Amino acid sequence: MPATKTLANEPRNDSPNIALSMKLPRKADFEKALIRQYAKAVKLSREAGHQVSFRVVVDPLAGAQTISVVEEEPLSHQDVFPVEEVPEPDDELQAALAGARERGRRRVAEILAEDDMLSAEAFADLLGVSRVTVNTKRQNGQVLGLDGAKRGFRFPSWQLDRDGRPYAALPKLHEDLGGAWAVYRFLVTPHGALDGRTGLDALKRGQDDEVVAAAESVARGDFR
């Protein structure tokens, strides 16, 4: 393994201190910070002529995280491509994994076959818009559309409020949780932060702020 040194702890005269410390940020802010540090690591790698990486250290007690660029010492010629042999999974493990994947596929099929899962056409009719508009809203996270492969996208009818409009919190939930199935699981799962209610039940009660806060907590890995 190559020796490493963290530039945050050893300032160099020929490069700036490029460690970044921050309170645990919103997902979008963290992604921007990560991209900035990546760009700095690329620049340093070109200048140094060898590998550079960066690591993220999260301190749950301090509620902060540090992104530090790490300059790796050049590998010797013999260790340019170190390879660690990994044994193939045995037959029992492969069978268990295949079984788990099959159960997952069956569960997805069961969910998408439920009566409240509408096709794009049926959901468009419910909203009074075109199918193209529905797909645009799905891509923007404004509505929840679940990919069922063979069945195509399915849209839960329960994602509409009393006025027949998609819940206003849906775009933020997609942003925080990162995908339609993650949003679905969040909405149908009880959460302690919502007094044991599901995300959907809380939305029905008009608790949008609490729902978004709970989703942000899940995204951070708090699971409270």
Could you describe the 3D structure shown?
- It is globular, with a radius of gyration of 23 Å.
- The protein has 224 residues and is an alpha+beta fold.
- Helix 3 crosses helix 4.
- It has two domains: 4-74, no CATH class; 115-220, no CATH class.
- It has helices at 27-48, 91-112, 120-127, 131-139, 170-177, 180-188, 199-204, 208-220, and strands at 4-6, 20-23, 52-59, 64-72, 117-118, 146-147, 153-156.
- The chain is built from eight helices and seven strands; from the N terminus they run E-E-H-E-E-H-E-H-H-E-E-H-H-H-H.
- Strands 1, 2, 3 and 4 form a four-stranded antiparallel sheet that branches. It has a three-stranded antiparallel sheet with strand order 5-7-6.
- Mean pLDDT is 77; it is low at 1-19.
Number of strands: 7
**Unreliable parts:** 1-19
Calculate Rg over CA atoms: 23 Å
Largest sheet: 4 strands, antiparallel
How many separate structural domains? 2
* Structural class designation: alpha+beta
Sum up the overall morphology in one term: globular
Count of separate DSSP helical elements: 8
End-to-end distance, in Å? 38 Å
Question: Which H/E pattern describes the elements?
Answer: EEHEEHEHHEEHHHH
Strand content: 5-15%
Q: What does the average pLDDT come to? A: 77
Helix content: 40-55%
